[in-house]
Design brief:
Largest sheet: 5 strands, mixed
Shape: rod-shaped
Structural class: alpha+beta
Radius of gyration: 44 Å
Number of helices: 11
Helix content: 55-70%
Strand content: 5-15%
């Protein structure tokens, strides 16, 4: 906790505030009331000595700053003392202005200015406006009702009255000057703190940006190395497949290789993309289908049509979704386009009723029907479950699949 010590060393109060503006208000309360605790008794004595009737409200006012100093010292907070000072200031100023019609009231208006400035600085614009309204009403009443009578009694001021008036004016001038200086000081410090804060934020933003760039480079390097490692695995699988003589075994090696290639392609797209958390689904599917068509060396032209409402997809769902499309396209390329002059594969991804609807279809004439218990179909169903979705197979003018997924990919 920061400890604020008043500029004047009298008792050195401790406050709980850590905000500079609150500490400045506390400081203002302490210094003004400490000054008045000494100045008002002297002023009251001078007014009494020179037979000025306003010594009575001045004498009463001597107890207000003492009470406020005690509250400031014991509580360490400024709001209650500020309200006391403001209320008593308004009451005493109004009473002195209206209750003593034969007294010269120039200084009373200065005390009213002090209470207005004090209220604005310590309690805010609501209190400040309220005090301004009350004091203005009292002055207007004095002008309309009492000013003529007051002026008729003012012929020549006695020497004692002039001395008391001068002393009173000096006190008001000092307080008003202090209020203005305090406001200027607070404003300057606020501007300095603003500039300092902005400078610190700029530096911190630069540091964060630099760290983000470093992390981005590091993540891209990780994706690049993972992709390279997966390519090594595909190379090993291809080399191993050359030793196989059984066609089923060769096909198993090729399927496994394509699955690894599908995952490697994810990491390749990742480090090529600005946003490392997502990739463009449509772009990924185009590249995947092209690689699969090249891998299976299909002898006929295959037209691919991809439409997607889902532009980006998070890496959390990428691997199962990529493997799913890999299985669907691989099955089509292996079984659907035998003895055909051309083929087509269509994929659509749409958002509908808070779900993601994926449709996959080919126009092939399948040479062999897939077994319901084949590994490919089991893998497709397993990947759909992993994505918290459902999949349905339809065999009409080719083979199609309809996959319904939650809208949180």
């Amino acid at each position: 906790m920061n400890i604020f010590v008043a500029e004047m060393p009298f008792f050195k109060p401790v406050t709980r505030y850590t905000n500079y503006f609150d500490m400045a208000r506390f400081n203002l309360n302490w210094n003004i009331n400490l000054f008045l605790a000494f100045a008002l008794p002297v002023l009251a004595f001078a007014l009494f000595l020179f037979d000025q009737p306003t010594y009575l409200p001045t004498l009463f006012g001597c107890f207000v700053p003492i009470l406020i100093l005690v509250i400031l010292k014991t509580t360490g907070e400024y709001k209650t003392p500020s309200i006391l000072f403001t209320v008593f200031g308004v009451v005493l100023c109004t009473y002195t202005l209206i209750g003593f019609p034969t007294v010269f009231h120039l200084v009373d208006t200065l005390w009213m200015v002090i209470t207005v400035l004090y209220a604005f600085f310590t309690l805010g614009k609501v209190w400040g406006n309220a005090v301004l309204a009350v004091n203005s009403s009292a002055i207007i009443y004095f002008i309309l009702v009492q000013l003529n009578y007051n002026m008729s009694t003012r012929i020549v001021m006695a020497e004692g009255e002039l001395i008391a008036l001068s002393f009173n004016t000096i006190i008001c001038g000092l307080i008003i000057s202090f209020l203005i200086l305090q406001f200027i000081k607070t404003t300057q410090l606020a501007e300095e703190n603003y500039l300092k804060t902005n400078s610190e934020l700029t530096e911190k933003n630069k540091e964060v940006h630099q760290k983000n760039e470093e992390k981005t480079v590091m993540l891209k390097e990780i994706h690049h190395r993972v992709k390279n490692n997966l390519q090594v695995i595909t190379s090993l699988l291809r080399l191993q497949s050359k030793d196989a003589r059984d066609q089923n075994t060769i096909e198993m090696f090729k399927d496994s290789t394509n699955r690894v290639v599908a995952m490697a392609l994810i990491h390749e797209k990742m480090y090529q993309n600005k946003d490392l958390s997502k990739i463009n689904l449509e772009d990924y599917l185009k590249t995947l289908l092209k690689d699969l068509i090249d891998s299976y060396s299909v002898s006929i032209p295959i037209e691919t049509t991809i439409k997607s409402d889902l532009e980006l997809i998070s890496n959390r769902s990428l691997v199962p979704l990529a493997l799913l499309f890999n299985e669907l396209a691989s099955n089509s390329l292996k079984h659907a386009f035998v003895e055909m002059k051309n083929g087509s594969i269509e994929i659509s991804v749409m958002k509908k009723n808070g779900k993601i609807l994926i449709r996959y279809s080919d126009n092939g004439k399948w040479r062999d029907k897939q077994k319901e218990s084949s590994f490919g179909l089991e893998l497709i169903e397993s990947l759909a479950e992993q994505l918290d979705g459902t999949i349905e197979r339809k065999v009409e003018n080719g083979t199609g699949y309809e996959l319904v997924l939650p809208d949180n990919l």
